[in-house]
Please model this.
Amino acid sequence: MPKGSPELTASRKEEIINACEKLYQTMSFKEITIRDIGAVTSFTRTSIYNYFQTKEEIFLSLMQREYELWAAEVNTLAEEHNTMSANDFAAAMAHSLEKHEQLLKLLAMNHYDMEENSRPERLTEFKVAYGASLDAVRACVKKFFPETDCENFIFVFFPFLFGVYPYSVATQKQLDAMREAGMEFKMHSIFEIIYSCVMQLLGGAI
Model:
């Protein structure tokens, strides 16, 4: 590919995002640096700055990609089904987000920092992907549950997603602290939490 071509740019950006995703599986947002990301790419660390100006922009692009993939899956629900019961829709939404644990983790951690430390054009690209996920869920609710207050569903469901990860994934240190504090606390799976929320928003029995 010629230097500077759109194809090369897209390929390089994808490689950087993939490197960030790989590191995020074993390191925290605060621990990861541009140097760390550059070390697992096929080009020099300084080349990253041709595509992303900050670490936060890379993470924001990772979250953007997760939103795009999830929105595509939700749109498929609307395309492939004429009707869905509350139970089936809740299960489908729960399964879809279960596959996107990365998205839920990103939402729970440093979301504000990612947006605040990204250029306006990068933030706009992210908001387009976020808006598409809103539209995808909105389309499903309107199609399958016309009697439901769609905007109330959106207003409750999307902020709710920010808290799913901490209630479904805990480190051993956190579990030990809860035990020492005498807390009666049961961890629930991503599926259980999402399913319960959607069923309640649709007025279904759990």
Summary: The CA atoms of residues 12 and 26 lie 22 Å apart.
